[in-house]
Inverse folding.
């Protein structure tokens, strides 16, 4: 089974003690966003969907969640939901988003594959469904070029990942194993020291010399490059066609059953956002950055934003086959018992939306709910 919550808590305390810089926002699950956006106003004369007053939507303040950032900034969620208010929560980590989903304080969320897998298996397949794709790529191994000049030099060094068992942590542990090196997945100790560090403070840890590099998503990777780091490996090069899921859209199963029209409305917004992003990359990049600034109070500088955005592919396809592979990597690392992922996907509404848009439908790799 996935690592239990009490074990994770103990490890989290240990990491915090080892890295004094680590400070997490004091919030129950995610911070509620109150950014004012004229495009998010409810249009006069519009009606509620499924009789709902609101839909609670969650995402991370990462560029890999660019679909949600752009859809919100462009007012697409609110436009599709009519008089049903779109409310937002911004998360720093997948486990907290899963907790919010389980507690019904979140209805629909953008999230990485590993938290989705862990959440689904821990709940015995009763809590969530993956209903759409969002992004591929945008993950890099960035290192201090003075200490690490080649891939073999990673051995014996201190490399950060965002969190124990998160998507990048699993990918790095799998890569380490492929090199023939050994690391205890739980402690991070071995031929490489894996230091679990919140993305917010990874650049500070790098600058101080507490870590020698990091396997991280954008924009953290490009922030490290801006501090003098070097991209040693782009994770996309390890995957067939250079595609792998980094962000999916999930929904509470009960919400999907009770309010399919609301779910469809959110998916319409996501599909339209991805279409606009791919047709207008520069405008979309600016839109995502504007939403990041509204949410956090700080926009990304061009030397971080530009390379980060370029490395991410936005797609409606959840790339289901790669989710299965990522689950196998977690099993291989000893972080997960072999899971039964049958039923984790329900792409019915997404494919309905894609057909209406004249786009190709997508596949669930045999892991669908029916």
């Amino acid at each position: 089974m996935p690592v239990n919550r009490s074990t994770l808590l103990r490890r989290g305390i240990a990491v915090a003690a080892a890295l004094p810089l680590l400070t997490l926002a004091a919030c129950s699950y995610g911070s509620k966003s109150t950014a004012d956006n004229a495009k998010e106003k409810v249009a006069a004369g519009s009606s509620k969907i499924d009789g709902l007053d609101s839909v609670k939507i969650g995402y991370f303040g990462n560029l890999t969640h660019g679909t949600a950032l752009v859809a919100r900034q462009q007012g697409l969620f609110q436009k599709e939901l009519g008089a049903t208010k779109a409310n937002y929560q911004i998360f720093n980590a997948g486990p907290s988003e899963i907790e919010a989903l389980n507690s019904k304080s979140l209805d629909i969320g953008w999230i990485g594959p590993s938290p989705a897998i862990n959440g689904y298996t821990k709940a015995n397949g009763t809590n969530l469904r993956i209903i759409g794709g969002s992004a591929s790529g945008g993950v890099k191994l960035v290192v201090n070029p003075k200490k690490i000049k080649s891939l073999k030099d990673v051995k014996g060094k201190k490399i950060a990942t965002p969190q124990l068992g998160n998507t990048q942590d699993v990918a790095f542990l799998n890569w380490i194993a492929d090199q023939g090196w050994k690391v205890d997945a739980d402690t991070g100790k071995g031929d490489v020291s894996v230091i679990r560090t919140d993305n917010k403070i990874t650049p500070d840890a790098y600058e101080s010399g507490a870590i020698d590099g990091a396997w991280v998503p954008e924009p953290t990777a490009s922030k490290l490059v801006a501090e003098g780091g070097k991209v040693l490996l782009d994770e996309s090069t390890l995957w067939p066609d250079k595609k792998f899921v980094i962000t999916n859209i999930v929904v509470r199963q009960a919400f999907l059953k009770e309010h399919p029209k609301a779910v469809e409305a959110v998916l319409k917004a996501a599909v339209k956002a991805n279409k606009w992003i791919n047709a207008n990359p520069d405008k979309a990049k600016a839109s995502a950055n504007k939403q990041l600034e509204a949410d956090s109070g700080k926009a990304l500088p061009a030397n971080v934003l530009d390379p980060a955005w370029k490395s991410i592919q936005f797609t409606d396809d959840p790339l289901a086959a790669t989710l299965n592979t990522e689950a196998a990597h977690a099993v291989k690392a000893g972080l997960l018992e072999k899971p039964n992922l049958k039923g984790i996907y329900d792409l019915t509404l997404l494919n309905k939306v894609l057909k209406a848009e004249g786009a190709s439908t997508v596949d669930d790799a045999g892991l669908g709910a029916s």
Summary: The mean pLDDT is 90. The longest helix spans residues 260-279.
